[in-house]
């Protein structure tokens, strides 16, 4: 069961990205160079697909291994309100954590989301950089992931008949540097692009909080201002993704390794914030909706924290 965790795209990305590039180079330089050329042609023709709804595969999303993945922690999706499939929704996922296990397990595998929210199709938006990686891009798209670019979010939310749900990890890669056990710090105060997208397309906003997401790994201490945090932030600006230094358990021992700890993850989907379509929102309108979203996110957290082991005195910290 521990081995199935390594199939998680976030885990794969740390090593398999290089593997995929190495495989591609070997194809180009080896006896099967023509396969590499054909794939380059495919890549050219298919380049825009991650921004146009992707190419999900129900066969991949329903692999039996994902049942073991969800049961390992375990991962559970909790519904607090109905979502009318006649509308489109933008789900803000918090916190990022190191693995983003709750987002992947609930929105990219199995039928839990479909059963709880019939008529809605979830699209998990991830960094565009991963769709430039040969072969790996096909894998993540098959699970229902699409680019986090504005073009991609617009494509999903512009569905005239409704029934689409964009899932965006609001804190982004930067927030993973705060992913320490017990941490409740969210990078959100300056992140207002998702608010503009919701207004532009009239997509209802839904806060989502994933309890237990930060408990999966222990991270090397990196407080703001430390040399490690400074280096990590500079590398993130250069490469586009963060490099948290983390560890957890091994396959056959519990003292050290990269397998995440077995900690329950409860992903709670809040009530929708109704949004009226406004193609050209003013800064004041964006600020007002952003403030309302923060209020509803905090309310969601406070209402459910006691159920999932968060002490009463602890609260969310917005940065």
From TrEMBL:
Pfam families registered for this protein in UniProt: DAGAT
Keywords associated with the record: Acyltransferase, Endoplasmic reticulum, Glycerol metabolism, Glycoprotein, Lipid biosynthesis, Lipid metabolism, Membrane, Transferase, Transmembrane, Transmembrane helix
GO cellular component terms given for this protein: endoplasmic reticulum membrane
Enzyme class of the recorded protein, top EC level: transferase
GO terms, molecular function: 2-acylglycerol O-acyltransferase activity; diacylglycerol O-acyltransferase activity
Swiss-Prot/TrEMBL catalytic activity: a 2-acylglycerol + an acyl-CoA = a 2,3-diacyl-sn-glycerol + CoA; a 2-acylglycerol + an acyl-CoA = a 1,2-diacyl-sn-glycerol + CoA; a 1-acylglycerol + an acyl-CoA = a 1,3-diacylglycerol + CoA; a 2-acylglycerol + an acyl-CoA = a 1,2-diacylglycerol + CoA
Pathway recorded for this protein: Glycerolipid metabolism; triacylglycerol biosynthesis; Lipid metabolism
Localization: Endoplasmic reticulum membrane
Coiled-coil segments: none
Membrane topology type: Multi-pass membrane protein
InterPro entries in UniProt: DAGAT
Protein name stated in the entry: Acyltransferase
Annotated organism of origin: Meleagris gallopavo (Wild turkey)
Lineage of the organism: Eukaryota, Metazoa, Chordata, Craniata, Vertebrata
Gene: MOGAT1
């Amino acid at each position: 069961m521990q081995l199935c965790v390594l199939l998680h795209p976030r885990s794969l990305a740390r090593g398999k990205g290089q593997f995929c590039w190495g495989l591609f180079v070997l194809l180009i330089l080896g006896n099967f160079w023509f396969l590499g050329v054909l794939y380059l042609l495919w890549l050219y023709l298919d380049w825009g697909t991650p921004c146009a709804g992707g190419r999900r595969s129900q066969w991949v999303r329903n692999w039996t291994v994902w049942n073991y993945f969800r049961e390992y922690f375990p991962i559970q999706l909790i519904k607090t309100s109905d979502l009318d499939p006649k509308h489109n929704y933008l789900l803000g996922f918090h916190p990022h954590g190191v693995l983003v296990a709750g987002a992947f397990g609930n929105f990219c595998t199995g039928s839990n989301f479909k059963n709880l929210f019939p008529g809605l199709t979830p699209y998990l938006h991830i960094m565009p950089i991963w769709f430039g990686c040969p072969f790996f891009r096909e894998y993540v798209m098959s699970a229902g992931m699409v680019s986090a670019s504005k073009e991609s979010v617009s494509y999903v939310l512009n569905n005239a008949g409704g029934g689409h749900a964009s899932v965006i990890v609001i804190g982004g890669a930067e927030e993973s540097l705060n992913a320490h056990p017990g941490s409740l710090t969210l990078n959100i105060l300056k992140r207002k692009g998702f608010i503009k997208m919701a207004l532009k397309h009239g997509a209802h906003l839904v806060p989502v909080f994933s309890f237990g997401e930060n408990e999966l790994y222990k991270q090397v201490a990196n407080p703001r201002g430390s040399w490690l945090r400074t280096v990590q932030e500079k590398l993130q600006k250069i490469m586009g993704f963060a490099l948290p230094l983390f560890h957890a358990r091994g396959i056959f021992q519990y003292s050290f390794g990269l397998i995440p700890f077995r900690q329950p993850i409860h992903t709670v989907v809040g009530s929708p914030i109704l949004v009226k379509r406004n193609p050209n929102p003013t800064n004041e309108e964006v600020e007002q909706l952003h403030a309302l979203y923060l209020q509803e996110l905090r309310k969601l957290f406070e209402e459910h924290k006691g159920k999932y082991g968060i002490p009463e005195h602890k609260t969310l910290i917005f940065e």
